[in-house]
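Q: Is it fine to ask for two folds in a single conversation?
A: Yes, each is treated on its own. Send the first.
Q: Here.
A: Result:
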Amino acid sequence: MFETFATSLPRHDTVPAAATAPAAASLARPRDGDSSSCLAQMLDEIDYGMLLVAADAQVVYLNHAARAELDGHHPLQLLGRTLRAGRALDVAPLFDALAAAQRGLRRLLTLGDGEHRVGVSVVPLPGAPNDPRGRMTLLVLGKRQVCQQLSVQGFARSVALTPAETRVLELLCRGVRPTEIARTVGVAVSTVRTQIGSIRAKTGAASIRDLVRQVAVLPPLVGALRAAGG
């Protein structure tokens, strides 16, 4: 399905080399009303960054989440429409993974460092006959956070958490301990523990770990709060 979608997209005109990540929003998108448009809209609802890359590392398509993820801090960058590694140590692993994908081999990369360290799944797609762009490769970007803020907020609304409980849940999902949460929000630890008890009662979670897991395994769908037109 991806390869059919990819071959339906027009080839891109040359983009000045100075163009960087914001140029990603200008990548050609299918016309409304056809199957490619429906597929593009479907992929935009997935809260994992997904890119289609041709054999020459030219990005053919990227979904909404990928456009948001490829900021100045992400280990992958766009130079015009060319995908490249932002860190010198990641250049060879990325090149090798894309070359391996042309031979039909999957790779799982770990790129970047520190809080910007992410996993990237590199998946070769079946080649389309006579496609001058070569075999298409699907890149799926891992998360830089276990629980995304929109996911936490959507979950909180679904179980009727109060604003204070939602804030506590957000901090728990970041790995912050109750004592640190109390200092952060300026309340007593007993208050935070009472709020955690209320959250667990509303969600049916047996523990804080179980509570965080409920948020972490939510379907990867973007929320209605995402930037309009993104």
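Q: Second one now.
A: Result:
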Amino acid sequence: MKSQILTASEQFQNDTDLGLSSTPRFLKPKYFYDEEGSKIFQEIMHMPEYYLTDSEIEIFENQSDSMVQEISKSFSEVLLVELGSGDGIKTDIFIRSCLNGNLQLKYMPIDISADILDELKSKFKINHPEVEIDARVGDYFQVMQSLKNEPEYSDIPKVVLLLGSNVGNFSNQETNQFIEHLKNILEPNDFFLIGFDLKKNPNVILPAYNDPSGITKRFNFNHLLRVNRELNGNFKVENFDHHVSYDPISGEVKSYLIANTECTVIIGSLEKTFTFNQWDSIYMECSRKYSIQDMVSIANNHRFQVIENYLDSNRFFCNSLWQKK
């Protein structure tokens, strides 16, 4: 019997039910990025405490030509697939280097936010009208699986981008599943350019996820408000506090929302009521930090060759270029 394909709304409903019914409770971080959440994340990227964006932009401004030179040793034409495209600032720099280096490309950005993709397409039509864009809305895994079965893309070499610290949001199991799934889609010699936030002084890391202006707190609260808007919930954000911790051994930054009072939440579309005792928590997100050795081990375990690690001047961030063996 063929399994039913859920709509995005149905998947959000099911994942919310699963997370709030679990012990301990959790919400999946991919649902941060509705229209409002995407706007708040743009604010986060411009915070002085959020070093990740500036660090990665520095890498692309100074080293994207070198990345393209490495890719051009294998291919003269590629399909550039970006997972979680966001606002496309770094990709814009990279595509400019591709064009300057005579590396021909088609561009396929994939994002869970249709609004972000609409803005991205409009921007790229102005900045790079010569580049063909095939934007896809959806989950990385589902879109990549469909891509594997599309004849028009089966013969073109691929360069897959996973920029920012997106991989850091996965558990170890999810990271292994994700990279193994990607490996099975890619052909030998295809490239994977992946961003890693590096381990560093905790006093640099923590303010990026718990800033004094409360923008990251608002970002987390918006997830509850999205449940209210889309699933007929009645979360009251004033009943929850935002808490962030960092473990320098595992490299994990974990974000929680913690009930500061006893409260009851009704979610109409689920026809369920959830009771929170004071100090009960909802696990919202993990953002893992890595060492260079961690990155190399992950690549080797999945039969990717590390071609080059590109670091910013502070050694805060790394974009690692891998090639499938």
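Q: Anything structural to flag on that second result?
A: Two points. The chain has two domains: 8-48+214-288, 51-200+290-324. The chain has a mean pLDDT of 93.
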